[in-house]
């Protein structure tokens, strides 16, 4: 069986690894020169650093299993992290139970309710989201946590992550996020523990590439697939660089909006189904600073003057000793790629963000900045709207031999490296299962 995998992110690499391990003839196409997709890295100061921060939770089981299988479990590290909240001009510690008890923007009742509701959501069964899938996220949050908590914590978080899509977001997404992070503490009274891989996610990406090449798969980097050819009998192949190549099976792991533009010959009903899947873009500034900005790994923003989804001081999770004690900061802003701010030149973006950092830490000065980089991705976060499980696309498509993976299929779970490994494994099992039935 000749199999094409489109996309060399975590899902594509995992699918190619699993299929090549099973002895299949696999060819992987990645449009960028570097593998890894949203989890890829670039060189900075002689070392590689991830384009976007990646933390690991204690229950990221597909990732933890894969690290074990690849012999990388000794590279896994856990850190007790702290979380901050920048609210109306003041930086608060916000993450530990004691922080909540002293959090002055909340009344005593708000504090107790917030803590209890987090504990309750965490203790619910894994399918606890099903009954709220058709409830708008804002309605559910106000009902569960109260108006004040919603205004201070949740409303900014959702607005800054989903922008114009926020009103369409299902409560199930927020429920699953609280559930996942809640599981990163063994007891509610314990400090949050998050993980990272030594050398960053690149350690995993490189090991997957090495293994699949060893298994005989071929990998083409810097090659954009332009078209997936569909005939009445099923998928026939792909086109890239103006050339057609025949394949028995094609697996797309690119974002669904891109997949929709590549399909040639699919039914209007299927196209309509996949074209309604929305995804919001991200731009993210990475800074290498001489000094530490905050004591927190993650600072949520709840201040109308700042449009960042958070301030992530990555070196408070992974100390990256090779940067000589410098601080690595990520400043993500989510917005549709059609928004004019998405095209703001890098130097203007930096100027705007410097203003934010001066608010968050008044001691911050521009001469702390040693280096900076800006990353942009048009499709960074799928939008799981009300009732999403009824219209999300399946991994198996109606076209024989054509398969699709996309983070939106994880609904209500969020997109993570671990979940993309899960998608890659699942699609490989489906392909191998279909081959067995045929055989
Ligand atoms: C800002 C940010 C922060 C994140 N933080 C975390 C975190 O803390 N923890 C965590 O676990 N996860 C995190 N994630 C999520 C994680 O990075 C993703 O879930 C995961 O990397 C997605 O992998 P994927 O393979 O499914 O998709 P992608 O990474 O999107 O892979 C798709 C690949 O297809 C390629 N491609 C697209 N079009 C074509 C084409 N026409 N031809 C060939 N190739 C093509 C792309 O270049 C890309 O490499 C974060 C993501 C972002 C954006």
Q: Which segments are poorly predicted (pLDDT under 50) over 5 or more consecutive residues?
A: none
Distance between the termini: 11 Å
The distinct ligands, each listed once, are:
flavin-adenine dinucleotide
| CATH fold-level label of the domain at 2-54 and 200-277 and 388-438 | FAD/NAD(P)-binding domain
Q: What proportion strand?
A: 25-35%
Tell me the number of helical segments per DSSP (H or I, 4 or more residues long): 13
**C-alpha geometry:** globular
Number of DSSP-assigned strands: 20
**Largest sheet data:** 7 strands, mixed
- Please identify the structural class as seen in this structure: alpha/beta
On the 0-100 scale, what is the average pLDDT? 94
Multimeric organization: single chain
Rg computed from alpha carbons, rounded to a whole number of angstroms: 22 Å
CATH class of the domain at 2-54 and 200-277 and 388-438: Alpha Beta
Helix content: 25-40%
CATH architecture of the domain at 2-54 and 200-277 and 388-438: 3-Layer(bba) Sandwich
CATH fourth-tier homologous superfamily of the domain at 2-54 and 200-277 and 388-438: FAD/NAD(P)-binding domain
Strand order of the largest sheet: 7-6-16-17-18-15-19
């Amino acid at each position: 069986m000749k199999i094409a995998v489109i996309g060399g992110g975590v899902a594509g690499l995992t699918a190619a690894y699993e299929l090549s391990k099973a002895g299949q003839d696999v060819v992987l196409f990645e449009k960028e020169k570097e593998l890894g997709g949203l989890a890829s890295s670039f060189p900075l100061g002689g070392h590689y650093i991830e384009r976007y921060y990646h933390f690991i939770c204690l229950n990221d089981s597909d990732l933890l299993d894969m690290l074990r299988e690849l012999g990388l479990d000794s590279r896994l590290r856990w850190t007790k992290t702290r979380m901050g909240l920048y609210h109306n001009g003041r930086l608060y510690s916000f993450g530990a139970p004691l922080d909540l008890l002293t959090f002055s923007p909340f009344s005593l009742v708000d504090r107790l309710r917030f803590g209890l509701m987090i504990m309750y959501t965490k203790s619910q069964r894994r399918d606890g989201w099903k009954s709220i899938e058709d409830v708008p996220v804002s309605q559910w949050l106000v009902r569960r946590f109260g108006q004040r908590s919603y205004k201070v914590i949740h409303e900014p978080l959702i607005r800054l992550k989903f922008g114009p899509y926020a009103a369409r977001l299902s409560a199930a997404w927020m429920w699953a996020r609280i559930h996942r992070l809640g599981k990163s503490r063994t007891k509610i009274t314990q400090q949050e523990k998050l993980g990272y891989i030594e050398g960053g996610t690149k350690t995993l990406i490189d090991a997957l590439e090495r293994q699949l090449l060893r298994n005989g798969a071929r990998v083409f980097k810097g090659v954009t697939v332009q078209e997936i050819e569909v005939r009445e009998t099923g998928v026939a192949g792909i086109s890239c660089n103006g050339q057609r190549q025949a394949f028995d099976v094609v697996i797309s792991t690119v974002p669904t909006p891109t997949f929709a533009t590549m399909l040639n010959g699919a039914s209007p009903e299927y196209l309509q189904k996949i074209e309604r899947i929305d995804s919001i873009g991200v731009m993210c500034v990475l800074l290498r600073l001489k000094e530490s900005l905050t004591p927190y790994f993650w600072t949520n923003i709840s201040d109308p003057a700042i449009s960042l989804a958070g301030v992530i001081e990555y070196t408070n999770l992974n100390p990256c000793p090779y940067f000589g004690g410098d601080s690595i900061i990520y400043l993500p802003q989510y917005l549709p790629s059609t928004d004019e701010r998405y095209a703001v030149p890098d130097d203007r973006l930096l100027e705007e963000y410097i203003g934010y950092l001066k608010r968050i830490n008044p001691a911050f000065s521009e001469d702390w900045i040693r280096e900076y980089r800006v990353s942009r991705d048009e499709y960074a976060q799928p939008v799981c709207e009300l009732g999403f499980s009824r219209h999300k696309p399946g991994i198996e498509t109606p076209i024989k031999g054509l398969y699709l993976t996309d983070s939106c299929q994880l609904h209500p779970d969020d997109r993570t490296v671990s979940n993309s490994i899960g998608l890659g494994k699942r699609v490989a099992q489906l392909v191998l299962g279909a081959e067995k039935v045929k055989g």
